[in-house]
Amino acid sequence: MSARVLENLAGGGRPSKRPHLGSQRHSLTPQDLQRENKQLREEIEGLRRKVAESEKHVADQEKQTADQEKEIADLERQLAGRKKDSTNSSKPPSSDGPAAARRLKPARCRGRRKPGGQKGHPGSHRTLEPLERVDQVVPVLPSECRHCDHPLPQRIEEAGTRGEVYRFQVTELPPLRAHITEYQCHKVACPNCGLATRAEPPAAVRVSAFGPRLTGLIAYLTVAVRIPRRGVEQLLATALGIDISLGSTQKLVEETSEALAKTVVVQRLCPLSCSATLSP
What we know:
- This protein is an all-alpha fold.
- About 45% of the residues lie in helices and about 0% in strands.
- It is built from eight helices and two strands; from the N terminus they run αααββααααα.
- The chain has helices spanning about 5-10, 20-25, 30-85, 205, 210-225, 230-240, 245-270, 270-280, and strands at about 185-190, 195-200.
- It has a two-stranded antiparallel sheet.
- It starts with a helix and ends with a helix.
């Protein structure tokens, strides 16, 4: 008995329905094979397109994730910067915004003293200048008696003053006005030859149209006080009525710097001898 017959008997006596590959291939026509190959190619192309779309989608997702991580890092850095204020960093209190944490003040022990000046405290007040320093004295007299409302004399010679006078001083700037000196250089005819000769301005004032005190003030405001040139220009125009250009201001500062350069060099070279020479 053959092996195929034994296999059929083991399967219940029914023959196997599995098709024979060789016979199925021989049964397909060339047209069927072409259609099958075309269908397989279309399925492969579709799968390739899906794979390409999936790769592109993954790349877009990775780029979007990277952008979001960068944005999150920027926001965290900004948030960390906003959380810094004068309470947890070296920033000054003036840089604290409205959202800054409140500065915790140390708890004070409540004592029996009330806030403010205590009894017996001498207080602090402005010291009066001596009369030698006072430029103007204005006597002030009461107009009427506080007790009986009788009119009182308004001239210091007629009033009968008593006790020590109460002094009250007001410090004020004098009227500021630039002092302008004009040098009029005349042309004089010679009695000998008859020709005229015009005078030249003095050598001390010929170098600049501004005096040494004004030049020193401009240099002081610009260098020592560090006021910008535009600010110095506006200050002189507003306070003193002096119209000066920005270029003239810069030129005066440079001239002052050149004039003081030699003095600074000498003081650096011999500080002890110069101080001994300059001391009275």
